[in-house]
Amino acid sequence: MKSIVSIRNLSREDILYILSLADRIHTANYSGDLLKGKILATLFYEPSTRTRLSFESAMMRLGGRIIGFSDPKISSVAKGETLYDTIKMVESYSDIIAIRHPSDGAAALAADTAKIPVINAGDGANQHPTQTLLDLYTIQKSKGRLDGLKIGMAGDLKYGRTVHSLADAMGHFKSELVFISPPELQMPKEQKNELSARGVRWKETEDLQKAIRELDILYMTRIQKERFADLVEYEKVKGCYILNRQMLSGAKKDLRIMHPLPRVDEISSDVDDTQYQLYFEQAKNGVTVRMALLAMLLGKIR
After folding, report:
1. Per-residue pLDDT averaged across 221-249, rounded?
2. Does residue 86 have a pLDDT over 80?
3. What are the tens digits of pLDDT across the range 135-172?
């Protein structure tokens, strides 16, 4: 694998291999100089906390260094520089690139342009493969498996790149997906058709309370205001799902709740100290998984 652009480019075997590398790094408590002398360029055209900082933490824990920007307004992008030209310049200054961009397909363009590895840190409403890999790692650690689970995805399934990528990845495993959203934010029809063609079991519902009772994993997402062209449409669905402790009274004892974060109001703080909460551990696992990806793509771990 030269680059990580889309979860769709990874087979079941690829995914399990990457998760095994992450587990090795976690077990061995890797740190030090594995990537000494290597430079990661973080090109973040959109705001980010967890993804950007976990990439930087991962690189630093392995002994590498970081350059880049977290606001395109302070780069030559503000002067009109194209993505192609930015990538051609940055590949001369670094060994690997992590890019987040508001346009679908931007990461693929960067990977096609660069002579060094590129990692997609989220492109528009399209894909977020490293988030998916850390999600899978979190599920595997919590449940001991990826097959035979019932996984609910709730909230913004239309624009949510995290759920798009996770649904694609779960197509490699024998689990059932439950899509929970208002009609305006349903999982795209094309993706549902593709899942059906691959033999993936899925169903849709608007009833979060009822769905909770049958789930092994509940993956909550925020309603993404920044993806709506019309704010009137956003106001119609804002706050459509707010998960609180009381709603979990009928849940399985081993239900685990995940969220890619940041959250707004879709998970009440009274869920944070319950046995179901997994989202903080999920965020922490981002460092481990990204350490594995950086070391793998730079040829330092096999």
Report:
1. 75
2. yes
3. 999 999 999 999 999 999 999 898 888 999 999 999 99
Contacts of 116 (CB under 8 A, 6+ apart): 91, 94, 95, 96, 97
Q: Where are the domains of the chain?
A: 7-127+286-297, 129-283
In the predicted model, what is the mean pLDDT of residues 270-299? 96
As a whole number of angstroms, the distance between CA 130 and CA 289 comes to 8
- The H or E element containing residue 135 is helix 129-143
The secondary structure of 216-238 as a DSSP string is SEEEE----GGG-S-HHHHHHHT
Predicted confidence (pLDDT) at residue 239 exceeds the cutoff of 80: no
pTM (predicted TM-score): 0.91
Q: Which residues pair with 96 in a beta bridge?
A: 40
pLDDT tops 80 at residue 258: yes
List CB contacts of 132: < 8 A, sequence separation 6 or more.
Answer: 7, 162, 165, 166, 168, 169
**pLDDT score at 237:** 66
Helix (H) or strand (E) holding 180: strand 176-180
| Domain 7-127+286-297 identical in fold to domain 129-283 | yes
Q: Which fold has domain 129-283?
A: Rossmann fold (3.40.50)
In CATH, 7-127+286-297 is 1.20.80.10 = no
Distance separating alpha carbons of residues 80 and 67, to the nearest angstrom: 21
Residues 6+ apart with CB under 8 A from 260: 50, 128, 131, 135, 162, 221, 282
